[in-house]
Amino acid sequence: MTDNAIEISGLRKTYAATARAPAHEALKGIDLTIPRGAIFGLLGPNGAGKSTLINILAGLVVKSAGSVKIWGFDQDKNPRQSRAAIGIMPQEPNLDPFFTPAGSLDVQAGLYGVPKAQRRTAEILDLIGLTDKADAYARSLSGGMRRRLLLGKALVHSPQILVLDEPTAGVDIALRNMLWDNVRALNQQGMTIILTTHYLQEAQEMCDEIAIINHGAVVTRDSTANLLGRLDSKTLVITPTQAAALPALPDGITGQAHDDGRLSFTYSAGITQADAILSLVRDAGITIKDVQSREADLEDVFLSLTS
Protein backbone atom coordinates (compact mmCIF):
# COMPACT_ATOMS: atom_id res chain seq x y z
CA MET A 1 0.00 0.00 0.00
CA THR A 2 1.42 3.37 -1.00
CA ASP A 3 0.95 6.85 0.45
CA ASN A 4 -1.17 7.81 -2.56
CA ALA A 5 -4.94 7.66 -2.69
CA ILE A 6 -4.91 7.66 -6.49
CA GLU A 7 -2.16 6.81 -8.98
CA ILE A 8 -2.75 7.53 -12.67
CA SER A 9 -0.20 6.66 -15.32
CA GLY A 10 -0.34 7.25 -19.08
CA LEU A 11 -4.11 7.67 -19.03
CA ARG A 12 -5.64 8.22 -22.46
CA LYS A 13 -9.19 8.41 -23.70
CA THR A 14 -10.19 8.79 -27.34
CA TYR A 15 -13.85 9.09 -28.27
CA ALA A 16 -14.64 7.47 -31.59
CA ALA A 17 -15.89 9.50 -34.53
CA THR A 18 -19.64 9.85 -34.97
CA ALA A 19 -21.86 11.21 -37.71
CA ARG A 20 -21.82 14.58 -35.95
CA ALA A 21 -18.23 14.82 -34.71
CA PRO A 22 -14.76 13.54 -35.58
CA ALA A 23 -12.71 11.36 -33.25
CA HIS A 24 -11.59 13.30 -30.18
CA GLU A 25 -8.71 12.58 -27.81
CA ALA A 26 -10.04 13.85 -24.47
CA LEU A 27 -7.08 12.70 -22.35
CA LYS A 28 -3.53 12.67 -23.72
CA GLY A 29 -1.39 10.59 -21.40
CA ILE A 30 -2.28 11.88 -17.93
CA ASP A 31 0.23 11.11 -15.16
CA LEU A 32 -1.04 12.12 -11.74
CA THR A 33 -0.75 11.04 -8.12
CA ILE A 34 -3.00 12.29 -5.33
CA PRO A 35 -1.74 11.79 -1.76
CA ARG A 36 -3.87 10.28 0.96
CA GLY A 37 -5.60 12.70 3.30
CA ALA A 38 -5.30 15.69 0.96
CA ILE A 39 -7.90 18.11 -0.31
CA PHE A 40 -6.83 18.11 -3.94
CA GLY A 41 -8.07 20.52 -6.59
CA LEU A 42 -8.57 19.39 -10.19
CA LEU A 43 -9.03 22.52 -12.28
CA GLY A 44 -9.31 23.36 -15.94
CA PRO A 45 -11.47 25.21 -18.46
CA ASN A 46 -14.57 23.67 -20.01
CA GLY A 47 -13.64 20.80 -22.32
CA ALA A 48 -10.23 20.29 -20.69
CA GLY A 49 -10.92 16.64 -19.82
CA LYS A 50 -11.86 16.89 -16.12
CA SER A 51 -15.24 15.18 -16.47
CA THR A 52 -13.75 12.39 -18.58
CA LEU A 53 -11.10 11.78 -15.92
CA ILE A 54 -13.68 11.71 -13.11
CA ASN A 55 -15.95 9.36 -15.07
CA ILE A 56 -13.03 6.98 -15.61
CA LEU A 57 -12.32 7.02 -11.86
CA ALA A 58 -16.00 6.30 -11.23
CA GLY A 59 -15.98 3.40 -13.69
CA LEU A 60 -18.52 5.09 -15.97
CA VAL A 61 -16.14 5.58 -18.91
CA VAL A 62 -13.72 2.97 -20.25
CA LYS A 63 -10.21 4.32 -20.75
CA SER A 64 -8.34 3.84 -24.03
CA ALA A 65 -4.92 3.28 -22.45
CA GLY A 66 -2.99 3.68 -19.22
CA SER A 67 -3.47 2.51 -15.66
CA VAL A 68 -5.52 3.74 -12.71
CA LYS A 69 -5.05 2.67 -9.10
CA ILE A 70 -7.56 3.75 -6.47
CA TRP A 71 -6.52 3.23 -2.85
CA GLY A 72 -3.92 0.75 -4.08
CA PHE A 73 -6.36 -1.31 -6.18
CA ASP A 74 -5.73 -1.54 -9.90
CA GLN A 75 -8.94 -0.63 -11.69
CA ASP A 76 -8.46 -3.39 -14.27
CA LYS A 77 -7.47 -6.17 -11.86
CA ASN A 78 -9.67 -5.24 -8.88
CA PRO A 79 -12.62 -3.28 -10.27
CA ARG A 80 -14.95 -3.92 -7.31
CA GLN A 81 -12.44 -2.90 -4.66
CA SER A 82 -11.30 0.18 -6.56
CA ARG A 83 -14.88 1.32 -7.11
CA ALA A 84 -15.78 0.72 -3.46
CA ALA A 85 -12.92 2.98 -2.35
CA ILE A 86 -14.33 6.07 -4.08
CA GLY A 87 -17.54 8.08 -3.79
CA ILE A 88 -18.62 10.54 -6.46
CA MET A 89 -20.84 13.57 -5.96
CA PRO A 90 -21.79 14.32 -9.59
CA GLN A 91 -22.31 17.73 -11.08
CA GLU A 92 -25.77 16.90 -12.43
CA PRO A 93 -28.57 15.59 -10.16
CA ASN A 94 -29.45 11.95 -10.79
CA LEU A 95 -32.19 11.37 -8.24
CA ASP A 96 -35.28 9.23 -8.61
CA PRO A 97 -38.16 11.65 -7.91
CA PHE A 98 -40.30 8.91 -6.34
CA PHE A 99 -37.75 7.95 -3.67
CA THR A 100 -37.46 9.69 -0.32
CA PRO A 101 -34.00 10.79 0.88
CA ALA A 102 -33.94 7.91 3.35
CA GLY A 103 -35.00 5.50 0.60
CA SER A 104 -32.40 6.86 -1.84
CA LEU A 105 -29.59 6.38 0.67
CA ASP A 106 -30.79 2.90 1.59
CA VAL A 107 -31.00 1.78 -2.05
CA GLN A 108 -27.58 3.28 -2.82
CA ALA A 109 -26.06 1.42 0.12
CA GLY A 110 -27.65 -1.78 -1.13
CA LEU A 111 -26.11 -1.29 -4.56
CA TYR A 112 -22.68 -1.17 -2.89
CA GLY A 113 -23.45 -4.33 -0.92
CA VAL A 114 -23.56 -2.64 2.49
CA PRO A 115 -25.43 -4.95 4.91
CA LYS A 116 -28.55 -3.44 6.50
CA ALA A 117 -26.99 -3.57 9.95
CA GLN A 118 -24.07 -1.45 8.75
CA ARG A 119 -26.02 1.21 6.86
CA ARG A 120 -25.67 4.75 8.22
CA THR A 121 -28.79 6.30 6.73
CA ALA A 122 -29.84 8.30 9.81
CA GLU A 123 -26.26 9.45 10.47
CA ILE A 124 -25.80 10.66 6.88
CA LEU A 125 -29.18 12.42 6.84
CA ASP A 126 -28.09 14.30 9.95
CA LEU A 127 -24.73 15.17 8.39
CA ILE A 128 -26.33 16.67 5.28
CA GLY A 129 -29.13 18.38 7.19
CA LEU A 130 -32.04 16.39 5.75
CA THR A 131 -33.29 14.54 8.83
CA ASP A 132 -36.57 16.46 8.75
CA LYS A 133 -36.98 15.59 5.06
CA ALA A 134 -36.15 11.90 5.44
CA ASP A 135 -39.60 10.75 4.28
CA ALA A 136 -40.35 13.49 1.72
CA TYR A 137 -40.28 12.58 -1.96
CA ALA A 138 -37.12 13.75 -3.72
CA ARG A 139 -39.22 15.63 -6.28
CA SER A 140 -40.43 17.93 -3.47
CA LEU A 141 -36.89 18.91 -2.40
CA SER A 142 -35.39 22.26 -3.30
CA GLY A 143 -32.35 22.43 -5.56
CA GLY A 144 -30.04 22.91 -2.58
CA MET A 145 -31.52 19.93 -0.75
CA ARG A 146 -31.01 17.76 -3.82
CA ARG A 147 -27.34 18.78 -3.91
CA ARG A 148 -27.03 17.73 -0.27
CA LEU A 149 -28.67 14.40 -1.04
CA LEU A 150 -26.12 13.80 -3.81
CA LEU A 151 -23.38 14.23 -1.20
CA GLY A 152 -25.15 11.76 1.07
CA LYS A 153 -25.40 9.16 -1.69
CA ALA A 154 -21.64 9.45 -2.29
CA LEU A 155 -20.99 8.61 1.38
CA VAL A 156 -23.23 5.57 1.95
CA HIS A 157 -20.46 3.00 1.48
CA SER A 158 -17.91 4.90 3.64
CA PRO A 159 -15.40 5.52 0.82
CA GLN A 160 -11.81 6.50 1.51
CA ILE A 161 -11.94 9.03 -1.36
CA LEU A 162 -14.67 11.56 -2.10
CA VAL A 163 -14.85 13.31 -5.48
CA LEU A 164 -16.85 16.54 -5.60
CA ASP A 165 -17.63 17.59 -9.17
CA GLU A 166 -18.64 21.28 -9.15
CA PRO A 167 -20.41 20.78 -5.79
CA THR A 168 -21.39 24.42 -5.22
CA ALA A 169 -22.50 25.35 -8.75
CA GLY A 170 -25.70 27.36 -8.47
CA VAL A 171 -26.13 27.03 -4.69
CA ASP A 172 -26.59 29.80 -2.15
CA ILE A 173 -23.96 30.97 0.34
CA ALA A 174 -25.52 29.19 3.32
CA LEU A 175 -25.49 25.82 1.55
CA ARG A 176 -21.96 26.42 0.27
CA ASN A 177 -20.70 27.11 3.78
CA MET A 178 -22.49 24.04 5.15
CA LEU A 179 -21.00 21.87 2.43
CA TRP A 180 -17.47 23.06 3.11
CA ASP A 181 -17.88 22.58 6.85
CA ASN A 182 -18.88 18.96 6.13
CA VAL A 183 -15.99 18.46 3.71
CA ARG A 184 -13.44 19.80 6.22
CA ALA A 185 -14.86 17.50 8.91
CA LEU A 186 -14.65 14.47 6.60
CA ASN A 187 -11.09 15.38 5.65
CA GLN A 188 -10.10 15.71 9.32
CA GLN A 189 -11.38 12.16 9.78
CA GLY A 190 -8.90 11.00 7.13
CA MET A 191 -10.97 11.10 3.94
CA THR A 192 -9.19 12.22 0.75
CA ILE A 193 -11.14 14.90 -1.10
CA ILE A 194 -10.87 15.65 -4.83
CA LEU A 195 -12.54 18.87 -5.90
CA THR A 196 -13.36 20.30 -9.29
CA THR A 197 -14.73 23.83 -9.30
CA HIS A 198 -14.97 26.95 -11.42
CA TYR A 199 -14.88 29.08 -8.26
CA LEU A 200 -11.13 29.58 -8.09
CA GLN A 201 -11.25 31.43 -4.78
CA GLU A 202 -12.93 28.34 -3.36
CA ALA A 203 -10.08 26.13 -4.58
CA GLN A 204 -7.53 28.59 -3.23
CA GLU A 205 -9.08 28.47 0.23
CA MET A 206 -9.79 24.73 0.38
CA CYS A 207 -7.08 22.84 -1.49
CA ASP A 208 -3.66 21.68 -0.27
CA GLU A 209 -2.54 20.87 -3.81
CA ILE A 210 -3.87 21.63 -7.27
CA ALA A 211 -3.48 20.14 -10.74
CA ILE A 212 -4.54 22.17 -13.76
CA ILE A 213 -5.65 20.28 -16.86
CA ASN A 214 -5.90 21.86 -20.30
CA HIS A 215 -6.55 20.18 -23.67
CA GLY A 216 -6.39 16.74 -22.07
CA ALA A 217 -2.99 17.17 -20.42
CA VAL A 218 -1.75 18.24 -16.98
CA VAL A 219 -0.13 21.63 -17.48
CA THR A 220 0.95 21.98 -13.86
CA ARG A 221 0.61 20.32 -10.47
CA ASP A 222 1.90 21.89 -7.26
CA SER A 223 0.95 23.00 -3.78
CA THR A 224 -1.48 25.90 -3.72
CA ALA A 225 1.14 28.09 -2.02
CA ASN A 226 3.75 27.34 -4.69
CA LEU A 227 1.31 28.02 -7.51
CA LEU A 228 0.48 31.40 -6.05
CA GLY A 229 4.18 32.08 -5.63
CA ARG A 230 4.81 31.59 -9.34
CA LEU A 231 3.34 34.98 -10.06
CA ASP A 232 4.97 37.76 -8.09
CA SER A 233 2.84 40.43 -9.73
CA LYS A 234 1.08 42.94 -7.54
CA THR A 235 -1.41 45.66 -8.29
CA LEU A 236 -1.44 49.01 -6.52
CA VAL A 237 -4.75 50.88 -6.79
CA ILE A 238 -4.59 54.59 -6.02
CA THR A 239 -7.55 56.89 -5.49
CA PRO A 240 -6.52 60.50 -6.23
CA THR A 241 -8.12 63.44 -4.43
CA GLN A 242 -9.20 64.71 -7.86
CA ALA A 243 -9.33 63.37 -11.41
CA ALA A 244 -5.88 62.70 -12.85
CA ALA A 245 -4.29 61.09 -15.90
CA LEU A 246 -1.82 58.22 -15.74
CA PRO A 247 1.77 59.41 -15.37
CA ALA A 248 4.50 58.20 -17.71
CA LEU A 249 5.59 54.73 -16.62
CA PRO A 250 8.90 52.90 -17.09
CA ASP A 251 9.17 49.39 -18.57
CA GLY A 252 7.90 46.69 -16.25
CA ILE A 253 4.99 48.72 -14.88
CA THR A 254 1.58 48.83 -16.56
CA GLY A 255 -1.13 51.29 -15.64
CA GLN A 256 -4.85 51.68 -16.13
CA ALA A 257 -7.20 54.61 -15.52
CA HIS A 258 -10.64 53.51 -14.34
CA ASP A 259 -13.98 55.19 -14.96
CA ASP A 260 -14.39 55.94 -11.25
CA GLY A 261 -11.14 57.93 -11.24
CA ARG A 262 -8.90 55.30 -9.65
CA LEU A 263 -5.50 54.51 -11.13
CA SER A 264 -4.11 50.96 -10.98
CA PHE A 265 -0.47 49.97 -11.45
CA THR A 266 0.63 46.35 -11.97
CA TYR A 267 4.27 45.45 -11.36
CA SER A 268 6.66 42.65 -10.41
CA ALA A 269 7.27 42.67 -6.66
CA GLY A 270 10.70 41.11 -7.21
CA ILE A 271 11.84 44.02 -9.38
CA THR A 272 9.85 47.09 -8.32
CA GLN A 273 8.91 48.34 -4.88
CA ALA A 274 5.55 49.93 -4.14
CA ASP A 275 7.32 53.04 -2.85
CA ALA A 276 8.77 53.64 -6.33
CA ILE A 277 5.26 53.72 -7.82
CA LEU A 278 4.04 56.09 -5.13
CA SER A 279 6.99 58.38 -5.90
CA LEU A 280 6.08 58.35 -9.63
CA VAL A 281 2.54 59.35 -8.76
CA ARG A 282 3.62 62.15 -6.42
CA ASP A 283 6.19 63.44 -8.92
CA ALA A 284 3.37 63.72 -11.45
CA GLY A 285 1.59 66.12 -9.10
CA ILE A 286 -1.13 63.64 -8.10
CA THR A 287 -2.34 63.88 -4.52
CA ILE A 288 -3.21 60.48 -3.06
CA LYS A 289 -6.47 60.00 -1.15
CA ASP A 290 -6.32 56.22 -0.69
CA VAL A 291 -4.10 53.26 -1.61
CA GLN A 292 -4.96 49.55 -1.93
CA SER A 293 -2.70 46.63 -2.80
CA ARG A 294 -3.70 43.34 -4.42
CA GLU A 295 -1.50 40.27 -4.83
CA ALA A 296 -1.88 37.67 -7.58
CA ASP A 297 -4.50 35.02 -6.83
CA LEU A 298 -5.26 31.58 -8.22
CA GLU A 299 -7.32 33.10 -11.03
CA ASP A 300 -4.22 34.90 -12.31
CA VAL A 301 -2.23 31.65 -12.23
CA PHE A 302 -5.05 29.75 -13.93
CA LEU A 303 -5.37 32.27 -16.75
CA SER A 304 -1.61 32.43 -17.29
CA LEU A 305 -1.45 28.64 -17.74
CA THR A 306 -4.60 28.06 -19.79
CA SER A 307 -5.03 31.15 -21.95
What labels would you give this structure?
alpha/beta; Rossmann fold; 307 residues; 4-stranded antiparallel β-sheet
Protein structure class: alpha/beta
**Quick one: CATH superfamily of the largest domain?**
P-loop containing nucleotide triphosphate hydrolases
CATH architectural type of the largest domain: 3-Layer(aba) Sandwich
Residues in β-strands, percent: 25-35%
For the record, give the distance between the C-alpha atoms at the N and C termini, rounded to a whole number. Answer: 38 Å
Main beta sheet: strand number and arrangement? 6 strands, mixed
Mean pLDDT: 90
The share of residues in helices is: 25-40%
How large, in whole angstroms, is the Cα Rg?
A: 24 Å
pLDDT under 50 segments (min length 5)?
none
CATH topology tier name of the largest domain:
Rossmann fold
Order of helices and strands: EEEHEEHEHHHEHEHEEHEEEHEH
> In CATH's first tier, which class of the largest domain applies?
Alpha Beta
Tally the structural domains.
Answer: 3
Sheet with most strands: strand arrangement: 6-7-8-3-9-10
Describe the global form: elongated
The number of helical runs is: 10
The number of distinct β-strands equals: 14
